[in-house]
Amino acid sequence: MQKIDYSLIVSDFDGTLVNDDGSISAINKQAITQYIEAGGKFAISTGRMPAGILPRARELGLKGLVSCCQGAIIADIVSGKVIMDGRIPYETTLAAVQKMEEMGLHIHVYDQWEYYCNMDDEALKIYERAVKSKATLILDRKMSDFVKEKRLCSYKILAMVRAEDNDRILNALAAENFEGCGVTRSSSFLVEVVNKQYSKGTAIAFLAEHFGVALDKTIAVGDQRNDLPMIEQAGLGIAVQNADEGLKEKAKYVCKRTNEEGAIAEVIEKFGFNNKG
Predict the structure, then answer these.
(1) What pLDDT score was predicted for residue 277?
(2) DSSP string of 250-268, one letter each residue
(3) How far apart (Å, rounded) are the C-alpha atoms in residues 180 and 208?
């Protein structure tokens, strides 16, 4: 059996581990299985809510923990039990939603097992197919009124945007300086307001401690700006070939393969095992 080098690999999901059609390639599945069988720990860190990632983690045969909602939720894969969560306070949730409404945006507001959307459009249908999770539509009143009624403390507030508008909207929301929150991009079509106390960086630190792995023996792999905190926190931060150019500049290694070509298998083959000697 091959000897493990880096003991924990944490991978982003969409745009990194899975193909663009949502399927997981045989080459990635095989590499992950071999790595785990040799004693490695493999975890997913995603912007998705638990309902959108737990079935996919189980499909890979993973056990242990998964990081959701940009690190704001850590859940047990087998039981689904949430063991760590960090909500955005109600007042900040409301302020972010009101600003997005003012900008006329397509909004998602995330609770633990459910998310709410203010538009029933083709963009939502595409998103629902991708994450295999249906939104609860809020169409009879403003989303901000719904947030007030529930006094909802969200895990993140997301705007679906056109790729050409992403930078402008991200910068406009960031300029609002929502208390205790940051603004990030999880794809060219998604801009998210998130709790600054939690990120994929805090998630990989939590996972490393949970699994008893030193941070310098962890690998983080991603493709978008929201992956930067874990890329910087890990012992080895890696960007897939299709990654955002800014992320590639920060990564210690850039894969030759894209997510469509088995980038995770490349990472495991090149760095997961001790190939010295």
Answers:
(1) 44
(2) H-SEE-SS-GGGTHHHHHI
(3) 25
